[in-house]
Design a protein that fits this description.
This protein is α/β, with parallel strands linked by helices and about 375 residues long. It contains 12 helices and 14 strands. It folds into 2 domains: about 160 residues, Histidine kinase-like ATPase, C-terminal domain (Heat Shock Protein 90); about 170 residues, Response regulator (Rossmann fold, 3-Layer(aba) Sandwich), CATH 3.40.50.2300. The two termini are about 25 Å apart.
Length: about 375
């Protein structure tokens, strides 16, 4: 018998790993439609909870599938954050935003009703009825949560649900191993403000110095200005698909400039295609990652791209108030269980060293959810 609140299916789960794996699985669907997929897990959220992984998984998948179905261009944004805390439980808010067709205000009230179609013409055009939303709302209520939405016609929609989950504190967190990145100066270039926000959060640490630009033109100006002050950027992280000057064009400009050519480059792409890795390597990139990117992937790319020879060629300037001898071993992002090999390609002078994602796609949702507890 189903009931609200906690069920016999409740167990330990790592919500951040569930979100990362869902992002991995969903990426191919958005790539096929030419959509950018962005995933965020707020840095201040705990990692280990007690809950029902199968139901949480199903609701997120339903919302993402709905967003993909009714979005033909732009992006889809999966965001997990903490709006509040009550007693021993942590309230988690899961939201899926899209840049799709939107829903008229007068039809929002009926969107979660059973067997309700908002518009028959929309169903014929996009091939869906949004019927999974009523199922998702019911599952959320069975877990003691609530679901809602906001939408603007022609701009997109945001569907969200909140759950109050007990935090599991029985297992102490394990910190990232020490990394010699103290004082490293990073420049992130991306025209999408949501992408910049997510990466800004990930690099929000006093021992790293991170800046950002929204265009290739501004990036070149920032790189030259930093070099003129004697404090150059060590690594530039470039988005591949940008208007006017894309990441590859920007990389050519950087490598052709005698002042900037030693800047270490990392490419982020939303649409990884066969043959990209070899071409990106030829442009002088040290690493190539496909979005959405796990924080562990970015950290691994930084560690391996910032080789001893490059460190010796460009001495690090300590961040203000921090000793250069202090290792980056207390990064706010913690890992409570071993992560799988990241999906990235690293380039070295000897050639390409591929790292493939080891998470395999499971045939059934329940077996997939079991990976997270």
């Amino acid at each position: 018998m189903l009931r609200t609140g906690y069920t016999t299916a409740n167990t330990f789960l790592y919500v951040h790993l569930a979100v990362e794996e869902i992002a991995e699985l969903f990426r191919s669907r958005t790539q096929d439609k030419g959509l950018e997929f962005i995933a965020r897990y707020a840095p201040d959220l705990p990692r280990r909870f007690i809950g029902d992984p199968s139901r949480i998984w199903q609701v997120i998948i339903n919302l993402l599938g709905n967003a993909s179905k009714f979005t033909s261009d732009g992006h889809i944004y999966l965001n997990v954050e903490k709006p509040g805390k009550s007693c021993s439980n942590v309230t988690i808010k899961f939201s899926v935003s899209d840049t799709g067709i939107g829903i008229p205000t007068h039809q929002i009230a009926a969107i979660f009703e059973k067997f309700t179609q908002v518009d028959a013409s929309t169903t014929r055009r996009f091939g869906g009825t949004r019927l999974g939303l009523s199922i998702s709302k019911r599952l959320t209520e069975l877990m003691g949560g609530e679901m809602g939405m906001q939408s603007t016609v022609g701009e997109g929609s945001t569907f969200w649900f909140t759950l109050a989950l007990p935090q599991d504190t029985s297992e102490p967190p394990q910190f990232m191993p020490a990394v010699e990145l103290t004082g490293l100066r990073l420049l992130h270039v991306d025209d999408n403000p949501t992408n910049r926000f997510v990466l800004r959060e990930q690099f929000n640490h006093p021992q790293l110095r991170s800046s950002e630009c929204d265009s290739g033109k501004d990036a070149l100006e920032a790189l030259h200005a930093a070099s003129a002050k004697g404090d150059p950027f060590h690594i530039a992280i470039l988005d591949q698909a940008m208007p006017e000057m894309d990441g590859e064009t920007l990389a050519r400009a950087i490598k052709a400039d005698p002042v900037l050519r030693n800047t270490v480059l990392i490419m982020l792409s939303s649409f990884g295609r066969r043959g990209d890795a070899a071409r990106i390597e030829d442009l002088g990139f040290a690493a190539y990652l496909t979005k959405p990117v796990r924080f562990s992937q970015i950290l691994d790319a930084l560690r391996k791209a910032w080789t001893p020879s490059r460190r010796n060629a460009k001495p690090l300037v300590p961040a203000a108030g921090h000793s250069s001898a202090q290792p980056l071993d207390n990064f706010r992002h913690k890992v409570e269980c071993p992560t799988q090999a990241p999906r990235l390609t690293l380039f070295s002078h000897e050639g390409i060293c591929p790292k493939r994602g080891a998470f395999q796609r499971m045939e059934r949702e329940r077996s997939q959810a079991r990976r997270f507890y």
